[in-house]
Amino acid sequence: MLAVEVRDRFDHRNINVDVPEFADGMLIPTGEELARFILERVQQALGDATRVVSVTVAEDATLSATYRVTLET
Description:
Elements: H1 2-10, H2 15-18, H3 31-46, E1 54-60, E2 63-68
């Protein structure tokens, strides 16, 4: 499931061309947008079995973006 939603979708791909949701400027592939998109896709794939609360996308050791959701109490 994670392989399909993350690795297979993004690994060795030109995000602006090969990933339909980002193609033709539909979404801008910033780190923040990628983290949000991945979190939402993985959450959707997992269903209600668990909650994804944070995804970090890192380009290298000095450049990363994290998307977090607030859990409702």
